Amino acid sequence: MSQTPFDPNKTMVGGPGNPTDLNRTQAMTAGPLSAPTGEVTTAFQVTPGISMTVINGRQATLANGPAREQFVLEISAGDGVALPGLGAAGPRTPLNLCLVVDRSGSMEGAPLAYAKEACQMVVDQLGPDDVLSIITFDEKVDVLMAPQNVTDRERIKQGIAGLTAGYTTDLYGGVQMAAGMLAERRHASRATRMIVLSDGEPTSGVKGFAELTELAGATKAQGITATFLGFGPDYNEELIAAMAKRAGGNYYYIPQPHMLPEIFGKELRTAMSVAATNLKLRLKLSRWVELREAAGHKVAPGSREFTLDLADLERGHSLRQAFDLEFPNHPLGHYRVMNGTLAFEDTASGQVRTVDVDFVQEFTADRERFSQPVDPRVAGALEVSAASRIVERTIMGLKTQQINLAEAMAELQKTQMILTTQGRGQEAQEVTLAMQAIQKGDLGGAEKTLMGTVVNLDQGKV
User: Fold this and answer.
1) Architecture of 95-272 per CATH?
2) What is the pLDDT of residues 171-187, one digit of tens each?
3) How far apart are CA 262 and CA 121, in angstroms?
């Protein structure tokens, strides 16, 4: 009997020494977790505290004709409670933290006073296992504190108390200096974070949008996550949000100075709960497969291989990365449609982990099976991604006056309903605040708020 020719795109079971069966899918080396009946889900425990799940939109899709399916890769971290047969996720994560504070002339008075209070509050929460550095900038960049373990809180706080306002704003120089200092003490067992506070446009040093966002991307490439806090009405929200997105961190709009300590505290708690940092998802498309979209990321059209930098993963949370794939004319059977690796730094062990990722789809001629509803987790992730794009278009429409206020409100109300339905309460509240700002005539405040909504949604955190 003749043997079927080997097809490298079709998936198989077994390792070396097992007979090849081209009609079955390849088993991965980690032990699978259970999945609900009727759903196509492949779940694996990657570390004692981190699991990974590939979720197919549908059990089967149409073969031998144009077809389109969506997938979600979900990466989850336990909340510190021991998993069955495994240890607990561990204590809070030590930090390698740099505070980067704008002390330009516009920060004089209450803004700088509250910024100093916020920095001092951060110091009170740190201990000997944490590394702290502090940079300040106006037209020049100063090192208030070189990287060192936090062993003398009072002395550090005294240094912060002595800060005074200067003149112009060299944002580029401040971030560049901070990145260099963080790189000195970076280690996989610590969450390396930069928190940048600024209240205005860059007016000194390198000022271009492209150069500043490129610097943010280079910072992320060094394994450093940077969060950007925009204070007051005068900062460039497009720039600050773009830098936050490129640097893999969060973005906050802070309209009033008294909110600074609260936001600093929130960001500090987030950093202290990080379970995995520097997540890189490297993927390759199989034959007969085309990528339409990787939600929240820009992939060059026609790319067959690509890398996505994902947000840091905190304990008790998940990252959901959605993919939209197209199959112009795919043959019948079970096939691997996309595969690659997920690499990350595990803060619990201080080790770099790499795990294989496999996306497998059944292609069928049975239209009834093809017509089954999409898995609600996949549908939900796609709705959230669509909501982010609606917000993005609304911001641009307001800026360019291509839509009027009534149209903007209608779009935002639709988005708010989607986010509420999908359990995204924080982002739904942000949209509500933006609508209230529009009603008050504060379009700048609305745009600054919505920029944060887009950054948050595109991270895929749940």
Assistant:
1) 3-Layer(aba) Sandwich (3.40)
2) 999 999 999 999 999 99
3) 10
